[in-house]
Amino acid sequence: MQTSEEWRASMARLWMRCLLLCCLILSLSGCPEEGGGKGTVLEQNQRDYSAAIRWGNFEGAWNLVDPKVREEHPLTDIDFSRYKQVQISGYRELGSSVLGNGDVLREIEIGVVNKYTMVERTVRYREQWHYDEAHKTWWQMSSLPDLWQQD
Fold it and tell me: What is the pLDDT of residue 104?
């Protein structure tokens, strides 16, 4: 029969083992998979793109647009200066779908405030993301949102 001191010591060891096991499980659950998959890269690029738009960093968002699209439809300094006339008040994903070719479409609603008139309006925008096997990354194929579209 165990004495109360032996019982306390064995319980303390048991609790320490449980605590160490819980810490190990929690630390492993936070580890990303090695190299990340296509889905992980897509989520990161979409997060980076939406954060850049939300914070008015349109040059940063432009870097996530497919290089071919940037070459075919270049933006000028005047184009970028137009984006400085607005403040983004919201950026919300309304839905997404996968196309037959593997591209991903996202429906986005953007809140836009004109800095000079302080008038707010919403713009709907569709992003199309395409995976580039050669560069192992996803590119946004739709260019930057047209915040001046007519309803």
Answer: 96
CA gap 138, 149 in Å, rounded: 26
pLDDT digits (tens, 9 = 90+) for 82-104: 999 999 999 999 999 999 999 99
Domains of the chain: 38-140 (3.10.450.50)
State the pTM of this model. Answer: 0.73
**Residue 83 in tokens:** 């984006």
Contact 28, 36 (CB under 8 A): no
Residue with tokens 């998979």: 33
Separation of alpha carbons 38 and 40, rounded Å: 5
Specify the residue for token string 């993301």. Answer: 129
At 15, which amino acid appears?
A: W
